[in-house]
Amino acid sequence: MRYVILGAGAIGGAMGGRLFESGHEVVLVARGAHQAAISGRGLELRDPDRSVTLRIRAVSSPAEVGFKEGDVAVLATKTQQSEALLLQLAACAPATTPVVCAQNGVANEPLALRRFSNVQAMRVFVSATHLEPGVIEIPFAPLTGLLDLGRYPTGVDEVSKQMAADLNGSTFDSIADPNVMARKYRKLVSNLGNAIEAACGHRSGEAAEKLLRLAQEEAARCFEAAAIEVAPPEFDAERRAAMGPYRLVGDHDLSEGSSWQSLARHTGNIEADWLNGEIVLLGRLHAISTPVNELLRATANRMAAEGAAPGSIAAEELLAQL
Fold first, then answer.
1. Phi and psi dihedrals of 107, rounded to 5?
2. pLDDT tens digits, one per residue of 44-86
3. Which candidate, 24, 61, 71, 109, has a CA 20 to 30 Å from the CA of 215?
4. What angle, rounded to 10 degrees, do the helices at 291-306 and 276-285 form?
């Protein structure tokens, strides 16, 4: 299989780079200075043990890929970019092309299934940072991360099995799981803290912990009302423990998450509508109050629109607003 990575940022760059390094055919779709840097000097992957520069083909749009039989399209953008990217993909790739949603949240899979018949849901646990064009930094080694996938809405097929095998041979731990959406909902629970980290900083103390607990309690009530299955929190405990602690890459502490990075890079947008906003949506559908997630969603969006620096709001201030 040839892997076409749509969105070669932190997650897509790490996945595509490791697959390429292990001998798989990979095409990266990236934008602007990042695409120019990869095309000019290669994709540089840095981890705590080593740095490698990979000469991977990088293009600026799906139309430049030249899709063919056997290609797998991997969506690795934030959810707010999915709709536009899927429109571009549908214009140049067969509707039977397998589409893997390697993204946080649970909204991407139904968006993809409107246009493609084989959609794979992927639960992503990869901590990677992309702040410099052409460079991805990964704070774990030798295991890069956990990537479980299965066909959406349920089941596994040959694509699921083959991709899991390819990832297992490329420094990832991957399981083909017929019920992977339950894992994605568990990941969503932890991602409710992304907006808190972005707004208040990585080490924010008791007030931030209280905000997260309240946001997750709202989520639990919504999941129960909607009869949504959520994998138990201990489901991946042993696998995560095997990855060890975050480690420095050079002198960089890379423990900040994707929403923090969105503010740090001044992208002008953030994923909160599809993380905390997912709980707000469920609350409105099932008449459950979700003021904490609504506050976090609105705060993160305002900070992104205003170009605010990550960590510039005290968690105590947000608690006071509640």
1. -95, -15
2. 999 999 999 999 999 999 999 999 999 999 999 999 999 999 9
3. 109
4. 140
Using the predicted structure, report yes or no on whether residue 252 has a pLDDT greater than 80: no
The set of residues, in sequence order, having a beta carbon less than 8 Å from that of 256 and lying 6+ positions away, is 129, 197, 202, 264, 310
CATH-assigned architecture of domain 2-178: 3-Layer(aba) Sandwich (3.40)
Residue 114, H or E segment? none
Average pLDDT value for the chain: 95
CB of 148 within 8 A of CB of 121? no
In this predicted structure, the answer to whether residue 200 has a pLDDT above a threshold of 70 is: yes
Per-residue pLDDT tens over the stretch 271-283: 999 999 999 999 9
CA separation for the pair 165, 297 (Å, rounded) = 37
Strand pairing class (129-132; 119-125): unpaired
Distance CA 175, CA 104 (A): 17
**What gap in Å lies between CA 172 and CA 143, rounded to an integer?**
6
User: Exposed/middle/buried for 95, CB within 10 Å: 0-12, 13-18, 19+?
Assistant: exposed
Domain 184-321 is in which class?
mainly alpha
Beta bridge pairs of residue 5: 28, 74
- Tell me how far CA of residue 249 lies from CA of 51, 133, 253, 261, 278, in angstroms: 9, 17, 7, 16, 33
Distance CA 190, CA 21 (A): 30
Cis peptide before 178, with omega less than 30 degrees from 0? no
DSSP-assigned states of every residue in 267-312: -S--SGGGTHHHHHHHHHHTT---HHHHHHHHHHHHHHHHTPPTT-
Domain ranges (residues) in the chain? 2-178, 184-321
